[in-house]
Amino acid sequence: VPVIQLRNIEKIYQTKTIETVALSQVNLSIGRGEFVSVMGPSGCGKSTLLSLMGLLDEPSGGTIEIDGRPVASYSDKGLAGLRNHKIGFVFQSYHLINDLSVLDNVELPLLYRKGVGNTERRRRALAALDKVGLNARTGHFPAQLSGGQRQRVAIARALAGDPEIILADEPTGNLDSVMGEEIMDLLLGLNRDQGTTLVMVTHDEQQALKTQRLIRFFDGRQVA
Ligand code: ADP
Ligand code: ADP
């Protein structure tokens, strides 16, 4: 059973005056432990695809299944649980909170998790920071870090929740090639060593070639 399955997905954004077809007839399955990259020109629907896979938004048509179960069959509470426990997000612009320390940023997604107390939360955050090689920076603030380090904090924050799936939207888009490569190596390592399923949007062909499968989009459709 694929971990994520999209069947005949349509996504239409409707504003007062314009209707935009962001995705059309998308059929896609992501296997457990796969590392898939997604490429395509600006505006072709890549971010929309990730937000649907991450259950942040609903399709206008078609069905999404997680572990073989249609997302529409979950209650709101069940859906929130799925979103928080199963899926981690990494963004191009890191989305860190500037007046929180590195450690506090990484603890954030565990703050409201049932059954995770202060000590356990800290333990998991430190373990996640260790995985990204930032255990010497726990007391720093985001402004004191390089771009590559900030992205590593964002990856640690995603890892703290122990997700099965990481969805990364141009995770190296703001980084120079050296730091970009470091981040790519980190993601490849997570996939290889702990079996994390990864879906990554990228503009970098070289990076995409390092993943197991490359899906190309054009104008809301999967073209290759
Ligand atoms: P990409 O990530 O490939 O650049 P997006 O998924 O962001 O593409 O956008 C796909 C299309 O949907 C674009 O035409 C974009 O303008 C439109 N779009 C994205 N988000 C919204 C929104 N919230 N409201 C209206 N249109 C949107
Ligand atoms: P890079 O060249 O990789 O972008 P920087 O030159 O920004 O890295 O930073 C080099 C090192 O100095 C990093 O390890 C970072 O943590 C530290 N650093 C950068 N700015 C500050 C600061 N304002 N306060 C404390 N440490 C900082």
Automatic annotation (TrEMBL):
Classification via InterPro entries: AAA+_ATPase, ABC_transporter-like_ATP-bd, ABC_transporter-like_CS, ABC_transpr_LolD-like, MacB-like_ATP-bd, P-loop_NTPase
One Pfam match: ABC_tran
Residue intervals of the ABC transporter domain: 4-224
Iron-sulfur is among the record's keywords: no
Gene Ontology molecular function: ATP binding; ATP hydrolysis activity; transmembrane transporter activity
Keyword terms: ATP-binding, Nucleotide-binding, Transport
Superkingdom assignment: Bacteria
Gene Ontology, cellular component aspect: membrane protein complex; plasma membrane
SUPFAM superfamilies: P-loop containing nucleoside triphosphate hydrolases
Similarity annotation: Belongs to the ABC transporter superfamily. Macrolide exporter (TC 3.A.1.122) family.
Protein name, as recorded: ATP-binding cassette domain-containing protein
Protein's organism: Hymenobacter ginkgonis
Organism classification: Bacteria, Pseudomonadati, Bacteroidota, Cytophagia, Cytophagales
